[in-house]
Amino acid sequence: MKSFTVKPFYATYYNPKRIKNYSSVICPPYDVISPKQLSSLRKKSSYNFSHILIADKNNYQEKGSLLNKWVKQGVLVDDCQESYYLYEQKFNVEGKACMRFGLLSLLQMDKKGIFPHEHTLSAPKVDRKKIIRATKANLSPIFIIASKRLDEFAKVYKKYSKQKPLFKFNDSDNNPNCVWKISDKKDIAELGKAINKCKLTIADGHHRFEISYDYFKKNKNRFKDINCVLAYVTDCQKGLNVMPTHRVITIKDKDKEFFGKLDQYFKVEKVTQGELTKKLKSYLGFKLGICKNNQCYFLSLKSKTALNKISNKLYRELDTYLLHQLVLPSFTTKGAIEYTHSLGEAKKIATKGKVAFILRAVPLDAVFKIANQGFRLPQKSTYFYPKVASGVTIRRFKP
């Protein structure tokens, strides 16, 4: 395989002979686990993957030792075949049953055609750099989307989904997940060839991609395939669901001053939570919701001339970018931004000077356009649901 974008790998995963309940050991990605949830996950099982994934007491070296201990004890096993792993997730969105599947594989990082779409933050990268050095492994896959629908994906899914899975589990939201091993050389070759022709966008895992690339540059000759990162790769399926990420911010401006500033650009309408949800569903123009002191407001632009400050036409249609560039600079803010995907939760915590800015989800085609043209969105602009679970397969670096 001289030229490739993805390739099979020798995965490390929980030993089916030792672990009978995979739901007790799998966990969400590190960046969505709250301290409360971390405690709950670790109580599920002494082998829950969060014990390795998160160094909550700055105990990074212990995480590397624990990973090696679990392998030595047979809790985790190394596969003896280079394989892909077909990973299916079933879930519900607004009462509608959905499904998504993709491949767990290695992704070549030092190759053109892989596009990020979000800016990253320094603190998570410092944390993940320490964890990758301590464990010498990719603990969680990054999430990659191919630029088009691939017949080869559908063909392989149809074939393997009829077979008994390698293992199955329910994630933290009780969504059923199944994993099948793909070792057939013909299937591997066809999938690799199809993906090799596509542009690829990073949907989730920007921090992990950047620190893995940094690790590769510093360790080029130490490990096999160190120019690759563990990745979940999917194509343009109906199950690619992007959720909005609302912002809750402490605003120091008094109410009169706050609404006065909004009035310069927006028509401000007091609404119920249900009315706000309905009004935000249209993608015509820049629209925004606000929750403050248990009251909701719907904001629509009085004039499009305000958008003339934004030179890039793609950004003029993206709520997250416009919020950060046009709206927030008008106010005096304090402290860090809080993020939530629930309008109800945003409204609940928007008290005592806090204001919730309610956004619409970024359309998937806009994510592709932004990424492919080399631009990026503000941090936490997109949230692909459900998250790809951690602990399904691990990629340990081998000499």
Number of helical regions = 12
Characterize the main sheet. 9 strands, mixed
- Taking all Cα atoms into account, the compactness measure Rg is 22 Å
Determine the fraction of residues in helical runs and give it as a percent range: 25-40%
Beta-strand segment tally: 21
Which structural class best describes the helix and strand composition? Answer: alpha+beta
In total, how many domains does the architecture comprise? 2
What is the first-to-last residue Cα distance? 19 Å
Q: What characteristic shape results from the CA principal axes?
A: globular
- Indicate the proportion of strand residues: 25-35%
- Sequence stretches where pLDDT stays below 50 over 5 or more residues: none
What's the rounded overall pLDDT mean? 93
Could you explain how this protein is built, in words?
The protein folds into 2 domains: 250 residues, no CATH class; 116 residues, no CATH class. 30% of the residues lie in helices and 27% in strands. It contains 12 helices and 21 strands. The strands form 5 sheets. Strands 1, 4, 5, 6, 8, 9, 10, 11 and 12 form a 9-stranded mixed sheet that branches. A 6-stranded antiparallel sheet has the order 15-17-16-19-14-18, with helices on both faces. Helix 4 packs across helix 7. The longest helix has 14 residues. The protein is globular, with a radius of gyration of 22 Å.
